[in-house]
Specification:
RmlC_Cupin_sf; Pirin; mainly beta; 9-stranded antiparallel sheet; 226 residues; Quercetinase_C; 59% strand; Redox-sensitive bicupin YhaK (Pirin superfamily)
C-alpha cells in the first residue's frame, strides 16, 4: 500500500517566533488520519528565525533526530550547520539541549521514532550527510558504516541527486518505508514530488527508480518495522 502526503497537507502551528510544519499530529495540530507511520511518530519541519531559542524539555523513551537543512543551529552553545544530523536517545528520561538559531536563522527537520526497548540510558551522537551522490546510511540499529546507533529496527538513508540523475529504489514488503523530499524534486513511477512532499509504503515490495527534476533532489528514506 502506498500513501501520499503532500507538503500543503501538513499542519502548521507556531511556537513563539518558530513555525512548525507537521507531517503527523504534533503539538497543537491534530489530524486523526495522520497520527504517525508505524514507529515514526513525528516528522516536523521547523523554521527558526535568527536568534530564536528552543528551551530544553524533558523527554523519555523516544529516539529524537534533528537534521539541519539550512542555516546554523546552536545546541548548548555548539554550532551545527546544514548537513548535521544530531541524535538524542532519550531512554529513561533526559533533557533536550537548549537550541538557538544562528545569525541567518535555521531550518531543521525533527524526527521522533519510538524505540524497541524502554528505560534505556540516555545516549547522543552526531553524524553528517555525505556530499557525494547516492544513498548514505545515517542511522541504523547496529551503527553500521559509522551511522548513529538508534534503538529501533530503523534505518535512515540520505541521497543527493544531480539534475536528471536516476537512483534505484528497492523496498522490502516486510518493512515500512517513508520517502521525504528535502530539496528539489523527484519523479517516482511518474509521480512528481516537490520539496516537503512524501510517499510511504507498507506491505508491498517495491522495485523502481527515482529520477531527479531539473534542479536536482535531496531525499531522506526512513525504513521502519512493518
Amino acid at each position: 500500500m502506498k500513501v501520499h502526503r503532500s507538503a500543503d497537507q501538513r499542519g502548521r502551528n507556531m511556537h513563539g517566533t518558530r513555525t512548525r510544519l507537521c507531517t503527523f499530529s504534533s503539538g497543537d495540530f491534530h489530524d486523526p488520519d495522520w497520527l504517525g507511520f508505524g514507529a515514526l511518530r513525528q516528522l516536523n519541519e521547523e523554521q527558526l528565525p535568527p536568534g530564536a531559542t528552543v528551551p530544553a524539555q524533558r523527554v523519555a523513551n523516544m529516539e529524537l533526530l534533528t537534521l539541519v537543512l539550512d542555516g546554523t543551529l546552536m545546541r548548548d552553545g555548539v554550532p551545527f550547520d546544514a548537513g548535521a544530523l544530531v541524535w538524542t536517545g532519550a531512554g529513561h528520561g533526559s533533557d533536550t539541549p537548549v537550541e538557538t538559531a544562528g545569525a541567518e536563522g535555521a531550518r531543521v527537520l525533527r524526527i521522533a521514532i519510538q524505540p524497541d526497548r524502554v528505560n534505556l540510558p540516555p545516549a547522543t551522537g552526531v553524524t553528517r550527510v555525505a556530499s557525494e551522490a547516492g544513498w548514505t546510511l545515517l542511522a541504523a540499529p547496529d551503527g553500521a558504516e559509522n551511522s548513529l546507533p538508534i534503538r529501533q529496527q530503523a534505518w535512515l538513508r540520505h541521497a543527493r541527486l544531480a539534475p536528471g540523475a536516476r537512483l534505484d529504489l528497492a523496498l522490502d514488503a516486510g518493512q515500512r518505508h517513508w520517502l521525504q523530499v528535502l530539496h528539489g524534486g523527484v519523479a517516482v513511477d511518474g509521480q512528481l514530488l516537490a520539496a516537503g512532499d512524501a510517499l510511504g509504503w507498507h506491505s508491498d515490495a517495491i522495485a523502481t527508480a527515482l529520477v531527479a527534476a531539473s534542479g536536482g533532489a535531496v531525499l531522506l528514506l526512513i525504513t521502519l518495522p512493518g
